[in-house]
Design brief:
heterodimer, A: mainly alpha, MetI-like fold, 81% helix, globular, B: alpha/beta, CBS-domain, binds adenosine-5'-triphosphate, binds magnesium ion
Chain lengths: 657, 343
């Protein structure tokens, strides 16, 4: 056996070489930029003749698969299979006229039942959260909208969870399957959601089915990964105990592996639920009724009060679903003494049913328990509208927002955008390659170069650059806010906890709601787009800064203290370097979030890929939709590749595993 | 205690860990040492071991960490496939069993207790104990009955509905023991069952174990690190080193006549008086019976005979078997040397 040993000196040499090469590439890029006027056309922009009709080819391929291979029949079959349960939940939750043609469930019964479930999972607090969310939703007059959203969610989430579980098991059993789906999953995780929506509409029937399918596909990746991870972690002793108990393979899987990986699988389920909620809201873009659609309409017509109320409902639902499913993850089975009677063992199940039935009956006699009429609703949208508009109209506030808008637009965003657009494509790609070389290494530099060359070759360069510019400017602004405030917060235990809790909660909000404050402050324009991305991206940056700094080991800071370092020196020389890998993970997430958000923001009226993507929704141009989606995905993956490699290298160098 | 033919019979078995163990073993010249094999990139978990375990016997396997004890037992239960040699368990060549037959064998004949318990954390004590019964498809009622009986046997009554994390280490291992006994195995493997427990509880569990063995008399392969434990329990002790069995013999033979230098070192610090029984030092009766005093029982430990040995002044003492018949004599000086720890 031969062992290749890497000495620290080798490391330094490669580091040095890496920087030198990166600088050389940068120099070439600089020269290309300077020489722009005399550059051959092909180096400035990929000329039209070189842009092949990828979208037409893809369309052909899709049509071939769809018609000739008969995929459409398969998908229509699946659609029919999904439609049936969706119709049932739609009937039960909001009384859609479908089998079994019941009246919709009274809101009070739902709220009471969920409160008991909440109590079972997490005591009084959870009961109040669960019951309170539904009470708010009903009283504010959004019951039907919320139930339209939920009716898809309650089907999509279990289906996604089961499919993900099965795929996770397969990935764990057969490594070829894992190798095959891993890259697909990472592309899926970065693909803009419009690219989920159009195929869903084309292959599945428009309406809830398409929405459900898009939601399911969108929510599957994390549970596949978590399941495979959990199964791999099952301790060998348990497995051997299973074997010695004479388990068959099937028994081994169902009675030993899957139950033993319960925690990881349920964490995956939690993520599935949250992603489903985020996506169900976004299916508004393909006309799915519900909270998302209403929010879209209200924001479009600048009805801030209603948007705000819907936003609160969505956020409450998100927090409730997140907390309840997390409580379920942590819930350990408790034993009952021997001889406990049946009803006592199932007290919570019975309690839930009892609460539900009680209010179901009450609703027959008391109308407000059944539904809230328009007049009874406590919605104060007009008042909120007035208040917010009044507030924004205060001269001082207006002066600030308008100045900010002007400053950002004229002094920062537009010059930056124009500079990026002015750069020759070749120089642009080389700059990014140099950056990758310097941070990550040759392999990543090549990958990133290929990714961006593909983007250039598809002919959507300018729009891609605009997307990228929005992402970069928003993330830089977010860093300027998130990192210093994270550093400040990390100084005190109390504030760190608050920030972590706040950020974790904020991360569960469907991304759509982040648009509300942006539109409120800046109206419908470019600055609002950057601002909404900025809030969305600040959350992970702040979170990981706090986490990174808080987890620097005490010994290390004590070394600094004993060396007589000042606070600032300690931060600069000890804490930040050690926290940097963790902070980079947050940075990576911020960029991924930004790519996601910039596409959503399309409906405000951007000029980037998202805008084009949104336009494709109106037609059946699947090829174009895909080309655009892949472009976004490639750019996001490029950043992901560079940063995660850097994190790994850095962690290895610091001996942090 | 020893009766009947061998239950486990291993002939020149090998277990190599590495890339292509089968191919490597087939082409390997005879007589390679452990280190030479290691240099070729393979670990000899079991290296050319032959051993037989008789029905009803308790074989204790000892050796330093990494010497291959667990590997040996895992081969016996076919948790590992052996690389070479033949291994018969209960008369069947275990390597030729199909998956179905292997499962059937484990469901009916084998029980195993694991070093770190291997309890299923999401099942109650009762469900853990009933697990092997459930696997073989026994009906709910009868498996519950049997599991309750087992839980009672190991003294965990009243905790049937607890989850493993609600139990102490000792209690968890009792569950492991109860589970391994639930199917009434003929062969019982225990891989360092008590080593995770503190000395007091360990002692208690050993007593418990001896009590169970007294009730059940199974064929047992028991792994331990602890010589005292081995001496308390063993019919025979096998001492392993680098994948081979250095010596396999009764405890007093191991102590009195170590086969190799390694065994001598291994047993050096043992108080022999606590191991050796009068019967093991027996000299044939040449000539007249030593006079006066009652004969000493052959199964008595030298330690227990301390007072007699010091007070009695005869050079040779008569030794009697259980029925009271004189079977030989004991050289008092030899016995005193052992008692006083003089080599
Ligand atoms: N699955 C495996 N793959 C590779 N090597 C293994 C494997 N299992 C055991 N070994 C090696 O085989 C040798 C014997 O291991 P074994 O577990 O049998 O030791 P042990 O005597 O039980 O030690 P301990 O007292 O620490 O439990 C060790 O060197 C170990 O590294
Ligand atoms: Mg072991």
């Amino acid at each position: 056996m031969s062992v290749v040993s890497i000495t620290p000196k080798d490391c330094l040499v490669t580091q040095f070489l890496q920087t030198r090469i990166a600088l050389c590439i940068l120099l070439v890029a600089f020269l290309l930029a300077v020489a722009k006027p005399v550059l051959p056309e092909i180096l400035v922009r990929v000329p039209d003749w070189a842009i092949l009709p990828y979208d037409v080819w893809l369309d052909g391929l899709f049509n071939f698969v769809k018609e000739d291979l008969g995929l459409l029949y398969v998908t229509r079959g699946i659609a029919a299979g999904l439609e049936w349960p969706l119709d049932i939940t739609a009937n039960l939750l909001y009384g859609k006229r479908r089998w079994p043609n019941f009246d919709p469930m009274p809101w009070a019964a739902v709220a009471a039942g969920s409160a008991v479930v909440g109590y079972y999972l997490g005591g009084w607090k959870m009961a109040v959260l669960a019951g309170g969310t539904f009470i708010w939703t009903a009283l504010i007059g959004q019951w039907k909208l919320a139930m339209q959203t939920m009716s898809v969610l309650v089907i999509a989430a279990p289906v996604a969870a089961i499919l993900g579980l099965l795929m996770g098991i397969t990935a764990w059993k057969y490594s070829w399957f894992e190798k095959a789906i891993n890259p697909i999953l990472s592309v899926l995780q970065t693909l803009p959601f419009f690219t989920y929506l159009l195929p869903a509409v084309i292959f599945f029937k428009v309406g809830p089915t398409a929405g459900a399918v898009a939601t399911i596909v969108y929510a599957i990746p994390p549970i596949v990964l978590m399941t495979a991870l959990g199964l791999k972690k099952v301790s060998p002793e348990i497995v051997e105990a299973g074997k010695m108990s004479g388990c068959t393979r099937w028994q081994m899987l169902t009675r030993v592996y899957v139950p033993a990986a319960r925690t990881e699988i349920l964490v995956g389920v939690n993520q599935v639920i949250m992603l489903c909620l985020a996506m169900v809201v976004l299916t508004a873009f393909i006309g799915m009724p519900g909270l998302g659609a209403k929010l879209l309409a209200m924001m479009g017509s600048f009805k801030i009060g209603r948007s705000f109320e819907i936003g609160v409902t969505i956020v409450l639902l998100a927090i409730m679903l997140d907390r309840m499913s997390k409580a379920w993850v942590l819930k350990q089975p408790q034993h009952f003494e021997r001889g406990t009677p049946w009803w006592q063992r199932h007290i919570f199940l019975l309690g839930t049913i009892a609460a539900f039935v009680l209010f179901l009956l009450a609703a027959q006699f008391v109308q407000v328990f059944d539904h809230i009429t328009r007049l009874q609703s406590l919605s104060r949208s007009k008042a909120i509208d007035g208040a917010i508009k009044g507030f924004l109209n205060i001269d001082a506030i207006r002066a600030v927002t308008e100045w900010l808008r002007w400053f950002l637009n004229v002094k920062v965003l537009i010059p930056f955008r124009n500079a990026l657009l002015w750069l020759p494509t070749s120089a642009f790609i080389l700059i990014i390659v140099a950056f990758a070389y310097w941070l990550a290494g040759r392999r990543e530099a090549i990958i990133v170069g290929v990714f961006f060359s593909i983007v250039a070759a598809t002919g959507w360069w300018d729009r891609s650059v605009i997307t990228l510019y929005t992402v970069i400017s928003a993330v830089i602004l977010a860093m300027m806010i998130g990192i210093p405030s994270g550093i400040l917060a990390s100084r005190s235990e109390k504030w760190s906890k608050r920030i972590l809790l706040g950020c974790d909660t904020a991360q569960t909000f469907p991304s759509f709601v982040y648009l509300i404050p942006a539109i409120m402050l800046f109206g419908v324009n470019d600055v609002a787009v950057v601002f909404s991305i900025l809030i969305f991206a600040t959350v992970p940056l702040m979170r990981y800064t706090v986490e990174g700094l808080r987890t620097v080991s005490v010994e290390m800071t004590e070394v600094a203290d004993m060396s007589g370092a000042s606070r600032w020196q300690k931060l600069r020389t000890v804490q930040l370097p050690l926290a940097l890998p963790t902070m980079a993970v947050g940075f990576n997430q911020a960029i991924m979030f930004a790519f996601f958000m910039v596409i959503i923001a399309a409906f405000i009226g951007t000029q980037d890929l998202g805008q084009e993507l949104q336009r494709t929704l109106a037609g059946t141009n699947l090829g174009k939709n895909f080309v655009l989606g892949i472009n976004v995905s490639l750019m996001a993956l490029a950043f992901n590749t560079i940063i995660m490699r850097w994190v790994r290298n850095r962690n290895a160098a610091l001996g942090l595993g | 205690m020893i009766e009947g033919g061998p239950v486990i019979s291993a002939k020149n078995i090998w277990k190599l860990f590495g890339k292509h163990p089968g191919r490597y073993l087939a082409n390997m010249p005879a007589g390679k040492t452990f280190d030479e094999i290691l240099a070729d990139g393979y670990i000899a978990g079991i290296k050319d071991v032959s051993i037989e375990v008789t029905r009803g016997e308790m074989l204790v396997v000892m050796g330093l960490s990494g010497s291959g004890k667990s590997t040996l037992v895992r081969c016996f239960s076919r948790l590992h496939d052996i690389t070479g040699g033949t291994l018969k368990v209960d008369g069947q060549d275990i390597m030729s069993l199909s998956e179905k037959e292997l499962i059937a064998l484990r469901r009916s004949k084998m029980g195993m207790v694991f070093q770190s318990f291997g309890l299923l954390p999401y099942r109650t004590v009762l469900e853990n104990v009933a697990f092997p019964l459930e696997m073989r498809g026994q009906d709910r009622h009868s498996r519950r009955e049997r599991a309750l009986e087992m839980v009672k046997l190991v003294g965990l009554e009243g905790r049937e509905e607890y989850f493993p994390r609600e139990l102490s280490g000792g209690q968890q291992q009792r569950v492991g023991i109860a589970r391994s006994l639930a199917i009434e195995p003929d062969i019982w493997f225990l891989d360092e069952p008590f080593s995770a427990l503190d000395p007091l509880i360990r002692r208690e569990m050993q007593d418990e174990f001896l009590r169970l063995q007294g009730l059940l008399s199974k064929t047992i392969v028991f792994i331990t690190h602890d010589f005292d434990e081995a001496l308390r329990l063993a019919d025979r002790i096998a001492v392993m080193k680098d994948g081979t069995i250095e010596q396999c013999d009764t405890p007093d033979q191991i102590v009195l006549n170590p086969a190799t230098e390694y065994i001598r070192k291994f047993t050096k610090d043992i108080n022999k008086a606590r191991v050796v029984r009068a019967g093991a030092l027996l000299l044939p009766l040449n000539g007249p019976l030593p006079e006066g005093g009652a004969p000493i029982p052959g199964e008595a430990l030298i330690q227990e005979l301390g007072q007699v040995l010091v007070n009695d002044e005869r050079a040779h003492l008569p030794v009697a078997d259980k029925s009271g018949a004189i079977i030989g004599s004991l050289d008092r000086r030899v016995a005193l040397n052992i008692l006083l720890g003089i080599e």
